[in-house]
Amino acid sequence: MSGYDLPDITAASALIRHALAGRPLATGSEYGELFDRYLHHQAFRDLVASVADGLDLAVLQAPPTTGLVLSPNPDSPFRLRFADLRPWTPDERLVAGLVLLGIAALRFPREEDLDAEGIVRYVTVGSVEKFMREAIRPLAIAPTADAKSIEAYARSAAEAYERMPGLLRTEKRGQRKRGCTMRVIEDVFDLLIEQRMARRPARMDDDTLQLTDRFRVHVAEIAGSEALAVLRAVAAQQPAKG
Q: Structure pTM?
């Protein structure tokens, strides 16, 4: 990184820190000013990429509505693991991962959808549950060439989904109970919100989620998977929704 002074390196590091925290862009904020510099100065972009690479992070995209979107490499200390985020059972972890794929297919059913920035896309707990139940059979018969592939994972996850009841409720408050797929979907929604990949829209119930461009960018990273293609085929048979 020859040619850069310490303030430049500090600024690049600060931009990455804001991006990892998923902070919203705001005019006049430090993040907003650093992101503007990133968009308009190639030398600063190169520096940010170098600092990110040193942290085992990859710069995916920089949508104007979202800011810098980073992805940790497999060995990065910033990598998030389901086991660290929720006290899920093995079956619940499988189902959670499949739910994320399902949401991606449901709201980005075509490749060209991944290039469309700023489009408002909603999902609900009920719509995801209905979609996943319809997708179990196609996933179960999808070909898998590699036992460690995402397709093999999706098949195991589909079997776990089928084993799990759709809805269980607590006796006192009637809330969704651990051990059912709708509770896992609810937990995945909360996880997406924590990672700034979604938000709860105003004047809508807690079962409705609005996906952000940050989620769209991450979906683009798995766009070539056969499991996602199978789920997209199921999604294509459903009526179009916003």
A: 0.76
